[in-house]
Every structure is written in C-alpha cells, then in structure tokens.
Amino acid sequence: MHTCKTLRGTIVAKQEVLGKKPLQILEKIRENLEKLNEKMEVMIELQKHGRKDVQPLPETPLDVMTLLSMPDHLRKTAMTLCRLGRATAEEIAQQTHRARAVESAYLNQLVIMGYLKKERKGRKAYFYVDRENHG
Amino acid sequence: MALSKIIAVHSYKGGTGKTLLSINLAANFVTHGKKVCLLDLDFRAPSLSTILKIEKAECWLNDYLNGTCGIDKVLVNISDRIQNKGKLFVGLANPATEAIRDMSAKDRKWEMRALGRLLALRNSLLNDKSFDYLIFDTSPGLQYSSINAIVSADLVIVATTLDRSDVDGTRRMLRELYDLFEKKTDIILNKVLFDVSSRLGREELQNKMKDIYRVPLLGIIPCFCDVLRAEGGIIFAQERPEHPFTKILDDIVSKIDNNMA
To answer: CA B114 to CA B118: how far, in whole Å?
Structure first.
C-alpha cells in the first residue's frame, strides 16, 4: 500500500516536472495506432474480397445505379451514409448494427473505390458523399 | 418500427394507376387532417399539372433538382380544394417537351446530386415545415428518377394489376430492386376485374397475391367505371366521399397512418 502510494506520487511528480509532454506523446502514439489500424482493416477487407491493388480509383459518382450494382455488404454502408450525409464509422455502425471496425473497413474501401471522401477532424474521421463538388 | 413518412408510389408497367392512387391517397390523408406534400417525380410523362389544372408554378421540381431554386418556390398550396382542416401542397414536374427531353438526358453526376436533393426533403419538409407525409408519384420501371425516389422513401407502394407481364415484372422488381435497398414495400392490386365483394373471393385473391409477391397487400381495388368516367379530371376521393373506391383508400390510409403498412 505504502509502496503503491509512493510510486503514484513519483509518477505524478515526474509528469509535473516534464509538463504535458508524456501525455501528448501517448496521445500521438494512439492516433498513429488508430490510423495504422484503419489501414490494416482496409487491407484485410481487400484481401478478403480478392483485390490486391490498394490504388485509389478516380472519383466516381455514387448514383443509384452504382448502389444497385454494389455487393450487398458495401451497399448497406453506402446507403446509410447517403441517408446520414456525413458520418463517422461509429455512427454508421449504430445504424447498421455491425461492428465499428467492419464499417470502418467498408467505408475506407468505398473511399479507395472513389465513391466517398474522408476528412479528419481531430481524432475523428468523417466520411461523406461529395455531391456538390464532384468532378 | 419507424413511421412511413415518405411514400413512393411506383410500378413496373405504366397505366397501373400510380398517379390516380398518389393524388387520392394524398387527398385522403388531408381529409384525415394531415399536412401532405404530393410531388410529381414522373419527369417523362408529367401529369399532375393537367389533372390538378395548375397552369404555372413559380418553379418546377425540375428546377429544384437542378439546384436553381429552393423547394419553397416549387410548392403550390391547393388546400382550398379539400374541404377539411388538413393541408395539401403539390410540386409539379414541367410538362414542356423540352423539359422532358432535358430530364432524360441527365448524366450520373446529375442523378447523384438529384438524389442528394431528394434526401434533403426529409429535413426541409418533414422537420422544418412539419409536413406529415410526402408522396412521390414516380415513372414506371427502372428509371433513375424513380429509383432516386425509392431510395429516399420510407415506404414503397407498388401499384400492380393482374396483367401477366406486370405480375412478372413486379415480382422481379421486388427481389432485384426494393429488397436490395431494404425498403419496406407494400402492394396495391388495382383494376381488378372480377368480383371481390364477397369475403371468400377477397381472401382467395389475397392468398394468391401473398404467394406470388410475399410482401403485404395494402389493398385490392376493383376496376370502377366511375373512376374511369371521371377521366382524371377530379380528385375522386374528394368529390365522391361515399364511393367504394374512396372507402378502400380510407382503409389504406388508416393502415399507413397507424403504422400497419
């Protein structure tokens, strides 16, 4: 108990001495890990569906005929995003009742296919259909 | 289950009664005190302007989808034609040949933007202007404008007849269009020629339809000569409130309103 208290005291003291730096470093590491995680999810997804090239395709309009011709799993994600306008993977997952990581992979795949755009705001990634400035 | 606030009336073939059903469903909702917006999304064969005898609107729905005007400028208030506390607004498709040609030559990018503008109506009309229902009258078959309407809707009502090619096409659309978009879909069987006034006859037809389509049957409408005789010149449900046609529509509207559709 005594040792634990001392240890906690030392950590707090050290953090105070170094200012906020360690926290910022940890925050940065977490951000980078999240980015890496997203990229890995896309790669896993593309592997699953037999595509090995991860080259982004040119911007393509996400019209209803395109939605119709999509595989079911991607159509569900794309349709939900069409309805919401702009959303994070978490928000899409709430609607589709699938895991956030799964939606994240599908959304990133749709970005690579040129149907969606992605924008980062702080630690969150927003996906949207760029209807007005398309092409 | 979420309420069906945006209803697209669609069919595989032309002439199944989409426009007649759209207008009369809208009128029926209004007589139930609802605020309704009826939009003519049949840009290939616009008809609401003729049927409702509205010569000119400030803007057409074509302009709204082109992004050159707001939806406020498109809507025409015709509540005075329905004797009730409800409200009826309509948005018209431009019937000029040039406008029809222009709409049929749009590209995929335009159609994508048009979908965005249709989806935006949920916010601008249902949330901001507190409409209770939006009804989309569409073109038959697999047209861009119709599929845009279907994607934007909560409920698709498919008007169908007993015509063999219509039955086949409707069945295909159920599996290859509405199902793919995970849309709540109901059937209205229209222009039925044989007698369905007996309970037995009606049940037999209901079971047959369930076997064929495997989606809920919202109503069976016999072929009424009175409706045909009106030549699309009146809002039938308003002019003939006691007619069996109006009574069937009353029942359909109650089912939708009670979220049983």
So the answer is: 6
Q: What pLDDT does A135 receive?
A: 46
Average confidence score pLDDT of chain A:
82
- Identify which of B112, B148, B182 has the shortest CB distance to residue A62: B112
> Three-state SS string across B188-227, please?
EEEEECCCCCCHHHHHHHHHHHHHHHCCCEEEEEECCHHH
Domain that holds residue A96: 21-128
Taking CB atoms and an 8 Å limit, are B182 and A62 in contact across chains? no
CA–CA dist A14, A10 (Å, integer):
6
Looking at residues B111-128, what average pLDDT do you find? 95
A65 vs B148: CB contact, 8 Å cut-off?
no
Q: In degrees, to the nearest 5, what angle opens at C-alpha A111 toward C-alphas A109 and A117?
A: 155
Q: What is the pLDDT of residue B239?
A: 82
Query: Nearest residue on chain B to A82, judged by CA atoms?
Result: B116
Is residue A61 included in any domain, yes or no? Answer: yes
**CA A76 – CA A72 distance, rounded (Å):** 6
Chain B residue whose CA is closest to A70: B180
pTM: 0.84
Q: Examine the pLDDT at A13 and tell me if it is beyond 60.
A: no
Q: Is residue A85 part of a domain?
A: yes
Cβ count within 10 A of residue B44: 16
Model confidence pLDDT, tens digit, residues B166-204: 999 999 999 999 999 999 999 999 998 876 667 777 888
Instruction: Let me know if residue A73 belongs to a domain.
Output: yes
Determine, for residues A131 and B116 on separate chains, whether the beta-carbon distance falls below 8 Å: yes
Cα–Cα distance, B82 to B34 (Å, whole number) = 11
Average pLDDT of the residues in B103-116: 95
What's the structural domain count of chain A?
Answer: 1
Contacts of B148 in chain A (CB under 8 A): 64
List the single residue in B109, B144, B182 with the smallest CB-CB distance to A64. B144
Identify the pLDDT of residue A11.
Answer: 57
Q: What is the ipTM of this complex?
A: 0.86
Name all domains of chain B by residue range, CATH numbers in brackets: 6-257 (3.40.50.300)
Q: Looking at residue A88, which CATH number applies to its domain?
A: 1.10.10
Task: Considering only residues A53 and B74, tell me which one the structure prediction assigns the higher pLDDT.
Answer: B74
Conformation bin of residue B259: beta by default, left when phi > 0, alpha when psi is -120 to 50:
left
